[in-house]
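Hey, resending since the last one bounced:
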Amino acid sequence: MGLLKGIFGVAFSAGAIAASWLGAKALTDYHNNASKDQAELSYQQNERNNSIFERLSVLTKEFLFPIWGSNSHLQTTYNSVFRTVERPQYQRERLFVNDGGLIVLDWVLLEGDDADYLFGNRISSLRSQPEILIKEESGEPTPEDPSRNEFSEGNRRGKARSESIAATVVICPGICNNSEAHYIRGFAAACRKEGYRVVIYTPRGCAELATTVKLFTYGDTSDLECAVDHVRELFPNSPLIGVSFSLGANLMSRYVGQHGAKGREDPNHKQPFKVAVSVSLNADGHQAINHLKTNYPNTYYAIVSRKLISLLDRHKEVFAKELDVPELLKSIKTVEDYDREFTCKVNPGISSESYYLDHSCKEDLVQVSIPMLLLNALDDPLVPKEFIPYDLPQKNPNIFLALTKHGGHLGWAQHDESASLGLFVPSNVHWHDLAILDFIASALTVLEEEENLKGSKERPIEIS
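The structure tokens again:
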């Protein structure tokens, strides 16, 4: 943290020196010319895609990043370390799947959503890190914890439902992140401002202590499937939009692709999402790990490794009856160690030899059957431009690929025109927040027009 603050301190100092040397107007002129960026969009030319493109107003226009924003590491670091966003008013729902595992959903509800009616005792307004009680010897939930409701096929039936037609955005955060990550806070707040209901899906162990000896995996979509099914049952008339970031983008892209494949096999299969967006995605897990290990062994690779080790260490007491975590941690120093010694051993059916291949979304993206935006920066230090699937839009007519020259990994800090130090201090709303919402609004509008046209054709003609 000290090193990162030092880097930013040098950057701001350099900017101040440049301002005094060049003069404010000259520096502003330089910034306006040198700090421009614009997404390059690739997609198949067809009636639907052209209609979506014509309605875009953010993705198709230039934007300005701060004067330091052309440095991908500063963009990446700012968003993950320095960006601060006021915490939205979350309400937490706890769901237990059939194996006893805990799924955490953090909601940002709309006015008119009756939380008590919809969620009952499954919801609270607790902050981000409440710890659940450890199971009793019997392995059953402790009776004094009323939030431990089974989430099974039988118990899904007869749940309360909302008639709301307002769209709901389902968010998947990046590795070990939850609703408290500032890039998630920022996007959730931007969604709510635009009138969307928001629910943030958090994998096992990343928001509250896990209840089974199983944490999130790179691409197992079974828990996400349960969570989305649950959201669909609560809000059956609400169009669902999937938005995912970094590692979460791999998970959601797999899910969307799997349902696209089901739709090809069964024409009556209903797609859970209307629209999807994946941000800073690397569709090949093995490729991603090797890149970090080779090029950033002491920075990004070490940070991800420490995150995973810390996650497992946090569960040492909960897992104590089934797993000696302190002993296990002696053999875990890296990402691969974690996956080989923990993930693949506690998840039956996962092979350490093919784990990254089997759980990557690379092949699933070809099956996507809904409008989907992939947004990446060409200078992303975690997902270099060589790894971007440039040919995907030609393989799949539902894919839009948007690439910016700068933005880093989940960065895209943009110039704040209203601030006196706007050349240096970015806007609280980052460009990618607005770009994602731009695509969602355009795609939903076009899909609604298609449905209305289809409905009018199917209605019988009245003859007077």
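Residues 12-22, 126-158 have pLDDT under 50 and may be disordered.

Sorry for the duplicate.
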